[in-house]
Specification:
Strand 1 and strand 2 form a beta hairpin. This protein starts with a helix and ends in an 8-residue tail after the last helix. Helix 5 packs antiparallel against helix 6. The chain has a two-stranded antiparallel ribbon. By secondary structure, the chain is mostly helical. The chain has a domain of about 110 residues.
């Protein structure tokens, strides 16, 4: 049922109350059947500015340090002989994890789309795992640690979304 019929107004009364911004948005539509969300998406895309040559958004710079820190932590843990559940971690696993994390850090530092997308996937896993750990938290410090990890990863994930959109823009540089 049309919105005007639900409110008890005639269609002409419903359209007469439309604001100037509503009319401007409606006039920008390609077709009358284009959803408002698609129009908003197009407006948001139009506002995005491609990255300049050599530009690196702050969120991507911060994101480059996440896998680098994880790789460094893994190397230090391996050298110091840390054990997981009483057994030594396989060397191949340590080497593979470290190579993948360093490649992601390098790619993010060079503002590569695949690297930033991979870091976002890593952040999504961190959010998921620490949310599940929060369920099993037995002390306030455990719960606080989980909340800090979820909050930090979620914040970085949020800021990487816009950066990722700017990275993938086709006008960034000639190929």
């Amino acid at each position: 049922m049309p919105r005007a019929a639900k409110s008890g107004r005639t269609p002409s009364q419903a359209t007469s109350r439309a604001t100037a911004s509503d009319r401007a948005t409606a006039s920008d539509r390609a077709t009358p059947s284009t959803p408002r969300s698609e129009i908003k998406n197009a407006e948001a895309r139009a506002k995005l500015m491609p990255l300049e040559e050599g530009e690196r958004p702050r969120a991507v710079t911060v994101a480059a340090f996440v896998p680098a820190a994880l790789a460094l932590f893994e190397i230090v843990a391996a050298i110091s002989g840390q054990k997981i559940r009483g057994s030594q971690t396989p060397t191949a696993g340590i080497v593979l994890f470290t190579i993948v994390m360093l490649a992601a850090a390098w790619g993010a530092w060079r503002v590569r789309y695949w690297a930033v997308l991979g870091i976002q996937a890593l952040l999504a896993l961190i959010i998921l795992l620490f949310s599940l750990f929060l369920i099993r938290a037995s002390t306030w410090t455990d719960a606080l640690l989980c909340l800090v990890a979820v909050g930090a990863a979620g914040t970085l994930f949020y800021f990487l979304v816009k950066s990722l959109a700017r990275i993938q823009m086709p006008d960034r540089r000639p190929r």
